[in-house]
Amino acid sequence: MANKQTPQPPIATMPEAAETLLALMHAQGEAARLREREQLFSTLLASVNAVLWAFDWQSQQMIYVSPAYERIFGRSAGLLLADYNEWRNSIYPDDLDYAERSLAEVLERGSIEDREYRIISADGQIRWLSDKCFISQQQEPGKLVVVVGIAEDITEKKHLEGELQRLATTDVLTQSSNRRHFFECAHREFEQARLQGSPMSFLLLDIDDFKIINDSYGHQEGDTVLQHIAEVGKGTLRRGDVFGRIGGEEFAAVFPGCAADMAKQIAERLQREIQRLSFNYNGKQYGVTVSQGLTTILDTDEALDNLYSRADAAMYQAKRQGKNQIIEG
């Protein structure tokens, strides 16, 4: 007896309208997810305090710039996308040649990660940028060459570095060079003078009877005297001279390119200006004097210590001979 097959019910087919609706709903879902990702990406870009940029090398056009551009530069991103000169014209004039040259180097090196230069923002502030740049793909004939970069505002870092440098090289009380920085500069000037065969003079200066000032009027008054001596020193010396406080009441100066006669004139002017200083402590007027030892580089000098020793000996001779005078050694 032949088996009878049970007839299968017909497979229901989805109407085209329903399929279209499901496809539309799926597309809308994908579009919504895409919008969410775009929103997230835009939020991330807006929160980054650095300018992300992309530059078409052939056309010399900026093709993308992130929102941080308007915060850091204070200028319109739309104007920059229309004209790259908006960025170029913002660069501090002294740094423009370096900024352009280092940007061009990316074509050979593939990346430049140590570019630092200044810009002038729209409100006139000078800001420092660390502007790293990279080639987005291998250069091939006929292919678009896009340079991408990230420009970070490092102004605060630069200010901090400058302050640390100032603290490391400056005497806190007198704001003149401290001992270490003074002798670093003095050694450099000595080697330069020897190399070029040019004159150089060295001066040591010590405040006369400074201990009496401290004992009679107090250390705060003594600090005031030191500050005024430093101000006179910095105001009397020439541009390029080196001046610093190297001890308690002892100062020193280096006069590059300065022969003995000119150095003596500078020391005498310094002596006169210090003698003109007048101090007042509780209604009592007093003045100060200094003893100076001065010397000039000789052909036989092998180190700065030779000049220091002669100037030191001359200064103490000035003390022994009555103070308030200049002795050449």
UniProtKB/TrEMBL annotation:
Pfam family, any one: PAS_3
UniProt catalytic activity: 2 GTP = 3',3'-c-di-GMP + 2 diphosphate
Superkingdom of origin organism: Bacteria
EC number: 2.7.7.65
Stretches assigned to the GGDEF domain: 198-329
Limits of the PAS domain: 37-110
Domain PAC, first and last residues per copy: 113-166
Ranges in a coiled coil: none
Main enzyme class: transferase
UniProt cross-references to InterPro entries, sorted A to Z: Diguanylate_Cyclase, GGDEF_dom, Nucleotide_cyclase, PAS, PAS-assoc_C, PAS-like_dom_sf, PAS_fold_3, Rev_trsase/Diguanyl_cyclase
Name this polypeptide is given: diguanylate cyclase
The organism of origin for this protein: Pseudomonas typographi
